[in-house]
Design goal:
heterodimer; A: about 425 residues; mainly alpha; 18 helices; about 70% helix; B: 22 strands
Chain lengths: ~425, ~525
C-alpha cells in the first residue's frame, strides 16, 4: 500500500529549545526501558510464589481440610522464602542499620556479607553482559562469551603466575590485559569468519566454546600451566601482585567490580559517544545504509567481536584474579550464557546491563542462604530467573497484564535481529 | 454490483484518518481515487476490505448495509484487492498461486484438482485478454505479468468490485497501456474498479469519475472531462502546485562524470551494465530512463563506489575512485539512493544522526574517536530549518517521519556541502505532489549553481521534467540519448522497450529512407 502509516497529524512545528528535549529524551527512554524489566521481575516473583505454595505438599493437603489456615500458611511460606532470599542477597536491614548506629564495624562487616556476595556474583555477569550487548548492537549474536571467558582466564592466569616480583600496579593491569587479549583472540575468529566468508557467528561461537573448554582442560595438564606435584587439572597459583584484592578486608567483594563498572562506562562511551560506536549501531540497525554511508561492515563485525570477546575474557580474568587465583576446568557456572540473559534484560544498554547483572547476581547469591533458612530448593531461583527472561521475551504479555499502552515500535529491540542476519 | 460508503470515519490514536467519507461506485465504472500519501486512501480501502472496522458510517452493497469482520467477508461479498506489493508465493506456479486459499479438490483426500483450476483460469484469461501461462513459476515472471496474476486471482474469486492500489507504479508505459485495456474490458463486462493512484495523467485517461482525498476527507469529485491536471493537483495538495519544473535552458560546462565502456556485474555474475559510456557536464541534468532492472542500480552503485567495476572506468573530474564510497563522497559527490529506508537512512537513528550519516567521521562532527554531539545538534537544527523538514524534534527516529520528510532529510544531508556531482536514483519514488515539487526544485537549484546531475528514474514524467538530456538505458547499455525537446513519451517508451533508435527517430529515419516515413510518423503519434 502506498501509505502504510496512518496519516500524519497536522505537521508539528519544531519547538525550541531542542537541545533540552534531546538530552531529556535519552534519559527518559532509558527510564522507560526499565519499566518492562521491573514488571517482568514482579510477575516472575508472583508466579514464583505460586510455585512455592504448590510444591509444598503439606500445605496442599491443608487446603482441603482447613482453607483459611492454608491461606495463612501459604502467605507465611512465601513471605519467609522471599525474606530469606532478600536477606541472603542484600542483607538484613535491621542488622545493617543497627551496626551502623552502634559503629560496630565487625558486626557491620558480617551484616554486609550477603551484599558482598551479590557483588562477587554480579562482577562477571556485568562483563559478559556487556560483551553480548555490544555484539547485539552490531547485529551479532555472541553465544561464545563462555569460551572467550575461558581463554581469557587462561591467559590471565599464565601472566599471573609467570612473573614474580613485579609491583602490583604493573602486574595486575598486565594480567587483566592478558585476559582481555585472550577473549579478544577468541572473539576475533568468528568475527573474521563472518566478515570474510559469511559464516554465521552463532554456529561458529558455539563451536568455539567447545574448542575453548577442551583447550583449557588440555593446557591445565601441560608443564607450563599445571601446578607442581598435582596430577589433576589445576593451574599454578597466581602471584599476590596480580590479585584483585578485597575492597574491605574480610569480605569477598573485590576490586573486580570497579573494573566491571569502568568497562561499562567505556562501553557506553564507545557505543553512544564515539564514531566507531556510531558505525557499530548503524551496521546493526541497517547494514545496507551503513555501506551506503561508506562504513565497512566487515571492519565493524571484526572489531565488535574482538571487543566483545575481550570483555568476556576480562570477566574470566576478574573471576580468577579476584577469587581462587587458580584455574580449573568448569570454574564458570555459565557466566557466558547468563551474559546473554543479562544483555537481553538490560535492553543492550550498559546501564541496564549493570542493573540486570546485579539482579541476577543477587538471586544467585541469595539462593543458598534461602535454601538453608527455609528449605525451599535452590531451583526456585532458577525458575524465577527463567520466568523473568520469559516475560522479558514476551513484552506484549506483560503490557497486556498491566494494561500498558503499546508504544510505536521503532525497532529498539535489537536482539531480534541477531538471529536472522 | 453497486458499492457505497456512507459517512465512513476511522480514528487512530491522535489522528483522524478518515472523516465522514461518502463514496459511490456504480456497476461498470472506474472510480479514480486520488490523494497524497497520508491522505487516507489506504485506510479507506482497508476499511472496505475488512481489515479495519470503521468507527462511524456504513458500507452498502446494492443499497443493503453490510459489515466486514475481515478480508474473508469482503472477498465473499465480491470485493477483490490487488495490492501494490504483490501477495504471491514466488516458487508456486500461476495456477497454484491463483487457487491458493480456495483450492479445488478432486476427492475427499484433498488431492488438488489443478486441471479444473487451470480451465477456469484460461476462461478468465481469454475473456479479458489477460494473457498468462498457467504453468509458469511466478518468480520467473516479469512484474507486469505478476500483476496480471493478481488480477486473475481476484476474478477467480468472483469479484465484482476490484480495488487496484497504485497498479502502474511498477510498469512501463506500454505495460500500463495494456493494464488500462484490461481495466476497460473488465468494466465493459460489468465489473467496477476503484483505481488508487497519485498519477494525474493516468486517472484522467482511464477513470470515469474522480474523487480526491485530502487529510482524510473528500475534497472534491469530478470527471476527467471537467478537470485538468493542474486543478487535480491543487485539490490534492490544497494549494497551487507547479507541475512543470521551472527551469531555464542548461549551460553545460566541463565534463564532471565520464563513464567509459563500463561493465559491472550483478550478484549472480551477469553483466548488468554492459559496455556503457556516458558523460555528464557541470550545470546540466542528464536523466536516465529505463524499465527497472536494466542495470540502473548497478550503474549508480559503480559510480558511487559501492560496487566492483569489471572493466571500463568511471572518472569524476578526471580521477578514478573505485570501490571507495568515502573517497567518492570526499570528491564532492552526493548520492540519493534508490531505496530511502533500506539504504539512505537508518530508521532507528534520530533525524540528527541521519543528517550526519555520511559526514560523522570528520570535523566538525567528530574529533578523533569522539563524536561532537553539540556540533551534530547545531547542524541538524540548522538543516531542519533550512530544508523545512517537518519533525517534532531532531531527536525523533527518522522512521516515524513521512516519506517526503525522510527524503528531505537525505536531500539536506547530501546537498548541504560543496558538490561537484549529484547522483539521484528514483529521487521522488512514492512521494506526494508537494514533496516531488520540492525535491525537483532543489535539484534544479543545484544544477544552476553548476553542479552536474545524473538522475535515474523509471518515472517518465520525472525524466522529462528534469532532464536536459535524456538517456535511455536498456539491457545494460545506453541505447540513445535525446535532447529534452526531442523526447516524447512514445519515443522514450519504445526505446525503453528495446526498440532500435532509428525506428523511433522520425526525422533521421525520414531523411534516410523516405518510404518509411509513414510508419515512423505513426509511431511518433
Amino acid at each position: 500500500m502506498a501509505d502504510e502509516r496512518p496519516p500524519d497529524p497536522t505537521p508539528v512545528e519544531p519547538t525550541a529549545p531542542k537541545e533540552a528535549q534531546g538530552r531529556g529524551a535519552g534519559t527518559l527512554r532509558a527510564l522507560r526501558g526499565l519499566v518492562l524489566p521491573a514488571l517482568a521481575l514482579l510477575t516472575a516473583l508472583i508466579v514464583g510464589a505460586f510455585v512455592i505454595v504448590l510444591t509444598d505438599f503439606e500445605l496442599l493437603g491443608l487446603w482441603t481440610s482447613d482453607p483459611v489456615r492454608a491461606l495463612g500458611e501459604s502467605w507465611a511460606a512465601v513471605w519467609n522464602t522471599y525474606g530469606a532470599l532478600f536477606r541472603g542477597s542484600i542483607g538484613d536491614p535491621v542488622r545493617i542499620f543497627g551496626a551502623l548506629f552502634t559503629l560496630n564495624f565487625d558486626e557491620l562487616k558480617s551484616a554486609l556479607v550477603p551484599l558482598s556476595e551479590t557483588i562477587v556474583s554480579a562482577t562477571p555477569l556485568i562483563l559478559t553482559g556487556l560483551s553480548v550487548a555490544l555484539a547485539f548492537r552490531v547485529g551479532l549474536f555472541n553465544i561464545g562469551a563462555e569460551g572467550q571467558l575461558y581463554v581469557g582466564s587462561l591467559l590471565a592466569v599464565i601472566v599471573g603466575f609467570s612473573f614474580v616480583g613485579l609491583p602490583w600496579f604493573i602486574h595486575l593491569p598486565f594480567a587483566l590485559f592478558a585476559g582481555f587479549v585472550g577473549g579478544a583472540l577468541w572473539g576475533a575468529v568468528p568475527g573474521v569468519l563472518k566478515a570474510r566468508t559469511g559464516a554465521h557467528e552463532v554456529i561458529v561461537t558455539i563451536m568455539m566454546n567447545y574448542v575453548a573448554y577442551n583447550l583449557i582442560t588440555w593446557s591445565l595438564r601441560t608443564d607450563l600451566v599445571q601446578r607442581e606435584g598435582r596430577s589433576d587439572a589445576i593451574s599454578k597459583i597466581v602471584e599476590p601482585t596480580a590479585a584483585l584484592v578485597p575492597i574491605v578486608q574480610g569480605l569477598r567483594a573485590n576490586w573486580g567490580i570497579v573494573v566491571a563498572l569502568l568497562a561499562a562506562v567505556a562501553v557506553w562511551w564507545l557505543i553512544f559517544r564515539s564514531t566507531k560506536g556510531f558505525e557499530f549501531r548503524a551496521v546493526g540497525f541497517n547494514p545496507r545504509a551503513a555501506r551506503y554511508a561508506g562504513m565497512s561492515i566487515g571492519w565493524s563485525t571484526v572489531w565488535s567481536m574482538v571487543i566483545a570477546g575481550g570483555l568476556a575474557g576480562l570477566a574470566g580474568a576478574a573471576v580468577i584474579l579476584g577469587g581462587s587465583r587458580t584455574l580449573s576446568p568448569g570454574f564458570s557456572p555459565g557466566y557466558g550464557f547468563d551474559g546473554i540473559v543479562v544483555a537481553l534484560v538490560g535492553n543492550t544498554r550498559p546501564l541496564g546491563v549493570v542493573a540486570a547483572a546485579l539482579l541476577f547476581g543477587a538471586l544467585r547469591a541469595g539462593a543458598t542462604p534461602m535454601q538453608s533458612a527455609t528449605g525451599t530448593p535452590l531451583d526456585l531461583v532458577v525458575i524465577i530467573q527463567a520466568l523473568v527472561i520469559m516475560f522479558m521475551a514476551a513484552p506484549a504479555l506483560v503490557r497486556a497484564l498491566y494494561r500498558i499502552r503499546t508504544e510505536r515500535v521503532t525497532g529498539t529491540e535489537v536482539f531480534a535481529k541477531g538471529w536472522g542476519s | 454490483m453497486k458499492l457505497e460508503l456512507r459517512g465512513i470515519t476511522k480514528r487512530f490514536p491522535g489522528v483522524v484518518a478518515n472523516e465522514g467519507i461518502d463514496l459511490v461506485v456504480q456497476p461498470g465504472e472506474i472510480l479514480g481515487l486520488l490523494g497524497e500519501n497520508g491522505a487516507g486512501k489506504s485506510t479507506l480501502m482497508n476499511v472496505l476490505y475488512g481489515l479495519y472496522q470503521p468507527d462511524e458510517g456504513e458500507i452498502l452493497i446494492d443499497d443493503k448495509p453490510v459489515t466486514f469482520h475481515g478480508p474473508g467477508d469482503a472477498i465473499g461479498a465480491g470485493i477483490g484487492m490487488v495490492h501494490q506489493h504483490f501477495m504471491l508465493v514466488p516458487v508456486f506456479t500461476v495456477t497454484e498461486n491463483i487457487m491458493l486459499g480456495m483450492e479445488s479438490v478432486k476427492n475427499r483426500l484433498g488431492q488438488l484438482d489443478l486441471e479444473a483450476a487451470k480451465r477456469r483460469i484460461m476462461a478468465i484469461s481469454d475473456r479479458h485478454k489477460l494473457r498468462i501461462d498457467p504453468d509458469a513459476v511466478v518468480e520467473n515472471l516479469p512484474v507486469g505479468v505478476r500483476q496480471r496474476v493478481e488480477i486473475i486471482k481476484t476474478l477467480y474469486r468472483f469479484s465484482d468490485v476490484l480495488i487496484l492500489d497504485e497498479p502502474s507504479a511498477v510498469l512501463t508505459p506500454q505495460e500500463t497501456e495494456e493494464l488500462f485495456e484490461v481495466m476497460r474490458s473488465l468494466v465493459a463486462a460489468g465489473t467496477s474498479i476503484i483505481f488508487i493512484t497519485h498519477k494525474l495523467n493516468e486517472v484522467l485517461e482511464v477513470a470515469d469519475r474522480i474523487t480526491v482525498l485530502r487529510r482524510g476527507k473528500v475534497v472534491g469529485s469530478t470527471t476527467p472531462a471537467e478537470t485538468t491536471q493542474t486543478e487535480l493537483a491543487s485539490m490534492m495538495v490544497g494549494r497551487d502546485v507547479d507541475l512543470v519544473v521551472d527551469k531555464t535552458p542548461a549551460k553545460p560546462g566541463e565534463p564532471v562524470l565520464e563513464v567509459r565502456d563500463l561493465v559491472v556485474r550483478d550478484e549472480r555474475g551477469h553483466p548488468a551494465v554492459n559496455g556503457l559510456s556516458l558523460t555528464v557536464r557541470e550545470g546540466e541534468i542528464v536523466a536516465i530512463a529505463g524499465v527497472n532492472g536494466n542495470g540502473q542500480t548497478e550503474l549508480v552503485e559503480a559510480i558511487t563506489g559501492l560496487r566492483d567495476i569489471d572493466t571500463g572506468e568511471v572518472l569524476i573530474n578526471g580521477k578514478r575512485y573505485e570501490n571507495d564510497p568515502r573517497a567518492v563522497y570526499a570528491a564532492g559527490v552526493a548520492h540519493i539512493p534508490e531505496d530511502r529506508m533500506e539504504e539512505g537512512l537508518v530508521g532507528d537513528f534520530t533525524v540528527a544522526d541521519n543528517l550526519v550519516l555520511t559526514s560523522y567521521w570528520h570535523p566538525p562532527y567528530s574529533r578523533g574517536l569522539a563524536l561532537d554531539g553539540d556540533a551534530i545538534v547545531r547542524s541538524a537544527t540548522e538543516l531542519v530549518e533550512q530544508f523545512d523538514i517537518r519533525t517534532p524534534s531532531i531527536f525523533n527516529p527518522v522512521a516515524n517521519l513521512s516519506g517526503g520528510n525522510q527524503q528531505k532529510v537525505i536531500a539536506a544531508r547530501e546537498f548541504s556541502r560543496p558538490l561537484e556531482l549529484i547522483v539521484a536514483a528514483q529521487p521522488t519514488r512514492g512521494l506526494d505532489v508537494g514533496s516531488i515539487e520540492y525535491i525537483h526544485r532543489r535539484i534544479v537549484e543545484k544544477r544552476d549553481e553548476g553542479t552536474a546531475v545524473l538522475i535515474v528514474s523509471t518515472e517518465l514524467e520525472e525524466v522529462m521534467a528534469l532532464g536536459d538530456r535524456i538517456a535511455v538505458m536498456f539491457q545494460g547499455r545506453i541505447v540513445d540519448i535525446l535532447d529534452a525537446e526531442e523526447a516524447t513519451l512514445e519515443r522514450l517508451g519504445l526505446l525503453m522497450g528495446g526498440a532500435h533508435p532509428e525506428e523511433v527517430a522520425p526525422e533521421e529515419a525520414a531523411a534516410l529512407v523516405a518510404d518509411t516515413h509513414d510508419t515512423a510518423e505513426a509511431t511518433d503519434g
